[in-house]
């Protein structure tokens, strides 16, 4: 399997090099040169498989040339052996057509663990083959940071620097990052938004001298390996609900478009997906883009669903690449225009092509709370604000009633206890395995959202590339 950049001028790379690189050298994102596909018989054969065996079947084409099947299975067993539920990502039925897929049974209680537990092991495996040191740079709106830090803390040949917007993540999210005191973990609270943090990460990768000196890599969903791991749970849920003999829809609370793009990949691989419902909060750039072609950056509004408080959705570029007919230079010109003007108009023909698979819904705070109350009162489930946004969008969908809709439950409700309590009157408690979080020492730096300040901190703190 070879990978190409969405912007067309970076070199083709194999899976190992793509994983360690993260962002392409031309500023684009790596995608497979072509999408692998499964026959209906191969999808039917996934019914009844364990999550690990499903993961091996789905990811095997993407890692070809870098890992054999036995190596991949061993890594998956190690990654998913840390999850607290035997099913890894269990499905729960809410009513006759609504389902939840719980993605938060990993060590940091968020869906990011599904990919990042594996990514940490991939980094370790690939770096063991090389005499080099990796400096991982990431931005987080909440959950990516803690999941990446848990996956990489204490690992040899890796430093991790995680940027989060000061005061704009929940206390649980912050403490899950800042109380990990491993010497290779470095947290930075920036005085700005998540979009500022994400822009700083991209700027560091674009600084060729800096990127090569410190051998930069990424753990955000700009890293292809993360998206690859997320494709698995679409197949796992689809097979349990009757695929390939009947289609399934998925409602995905999203800000950065990574989780829902993994569903797009699953559809490209042959999984019969009736619809991917893109559920946004009031920071609705993705809803505006898909429904009206208006991909323009507004001001971030802080909400009770902070992981979705985003205005620039990095992974949307991967979809635009396919909508541009995989014409890298054409997309590069469009993205450079967007980066200059903060606006991109998506033509009607492209929107129509996307609408064959995607729909979108904007969910405000009142509708989010109604969904949380419904889940508690009618289905006896306590859900977090992000999952509630997905559930609200699923309930408001006009899909054929015979099609089951799976809402991706992206975080444990205790990570957002205040919001859950306001909506339901119930204060969810953290699982015992996270006990003592509020008594632990924190360690992080507070820096302005300026590239010089961030690069200076990294240069003073990281081990230089060997």
TrEMBL record:
EC number: 4.2.3.1
Keyword Transmembrane helix: no
Domain Threonine synthase N-terminal span(s) in chain numbering: 2-80
Annotated ranges, domain Tryptophan synthase beta chain-like PALP: 92-327
Primary enzyme class: lyase
Gene Ontology molecular function, alphabetical: pyridoxal phosphate binding; threonine synthase activity
UniProt modified residues of type N6-(pyridoxal phosphate)lysine: 112
Matching CDD domains: Thr-synth_2
Pathway: Amino-acid biosynthesis; L-threonine biosynthesis; L-threonine from L-aspartate: step 5/5
Reaction catalysed by this enzyme: O-phospho-L-homoserine + H2O = L-threonine + phosphate
Entry keyword tRNA-binding: no
Keywords: Amino-acid biosynthesis, Lyase, Pyridoxal phosphate, Threonine biosynthesis
Cofactor(s) needed for function: pyridoxal 5'-phosphate
Biological process according to GO: threonine biosynthetic process
NCBIfam families referenced in this protein's UniProt entry, alphabetically: thrC (TIGR00260)
Family, as annotated: Belongs to the threonine synthase family.
Name of protein: Threonine synthase
């Amino acid at each position: 399997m070879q990978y190409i950049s969405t912007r067309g001028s970076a070199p083709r790379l194999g899976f190992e090099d793509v994983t360690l690189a993260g962002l392409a050298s031309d500023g684009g994102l790596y995608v497979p040169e072509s999408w692998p596909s499964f026959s209906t018989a191969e999808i039917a054969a996934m019914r009844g498989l364990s999550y690990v065996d499903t993961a091996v079947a789905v990811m095997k084409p993407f890692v070809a040339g870098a890992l054999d099947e036995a190596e991949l299975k061993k890594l998956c067993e190690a990654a998913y052996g840390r999850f607290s539920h035997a099913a890894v990502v269990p499905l729960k039925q809410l009513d006759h057509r609504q389902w939840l897929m719980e993605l938060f049974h990993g060590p940091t209680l968020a869906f990011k663990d599904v990919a990042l537990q594996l990514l940490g092991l991939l980094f370790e495996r690939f770096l063991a083959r090389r005499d080099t040191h990796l400096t991982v740079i990431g931005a987080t709106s909440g959950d990516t940071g803690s999941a990446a830090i848990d996956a990489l803390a204490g690992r040899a040949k890796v430093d991790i620097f995680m940027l989060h917007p000061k005061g704009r993540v929940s206390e649980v999210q912050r403490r899950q990052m800042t109380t990990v005191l491993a010497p290779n973990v470095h947290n930075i609270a920036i005085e700005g938004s998540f979009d500022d943090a994400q822009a700083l990460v991209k700027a560091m990768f674009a600084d060729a001298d800096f990127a090569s000196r410190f051998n930069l890599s990424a753990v955000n969903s700009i890293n292809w390996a993360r998206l690859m791991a997320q494709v698995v749970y679409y197949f796992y849920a689809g097979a349990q609900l009757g695929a390939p003999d009947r289609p399934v829809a998925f409602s995905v609370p999203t800000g950065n478009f990574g989780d829902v793009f993994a569903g797009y990949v699953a559809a490209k691989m042959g999984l019969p997906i009736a619809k991917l419902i893109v559920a946004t909060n009031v920071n609705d750039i993705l809803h505006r883009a898909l429904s009206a072609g208006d991909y323009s950056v507004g001001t971030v509004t802080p909400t009770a669903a902070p992981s979705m408080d985003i205005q620039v959705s990095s992974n949307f570029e991967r979809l635009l690449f396919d909508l541009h007919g995989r014409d890298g230079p054409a997309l590069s010109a469009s993205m450079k225009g967007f980066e200059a003007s903060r606006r991109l108009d998506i033509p009607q023909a492209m929107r129509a092509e996307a609408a064959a698979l995607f729909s979108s819904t904007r969910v405000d705070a009142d509708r989010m709370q109604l969904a949380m109350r419904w889940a508690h009162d009618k289905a006896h489930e306590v859900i977090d604000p992000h999952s509630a946004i997905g559930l609200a969008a699923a309930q408001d969908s006009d899909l054929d009633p015979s099609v089951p809709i799976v809402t991706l439950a992206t975080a444990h409700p205790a990570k957002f206890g205040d919001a859950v309590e306001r909506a339901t009157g119930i204060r969810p408690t953290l699982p015992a395995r996270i006990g003592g979080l509020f008594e632990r020492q924190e360690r992080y730096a507070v820096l302005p959202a300026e590239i010089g300040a961030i690069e200076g901190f990294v240069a003073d703190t990281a081990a230089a590339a060997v």
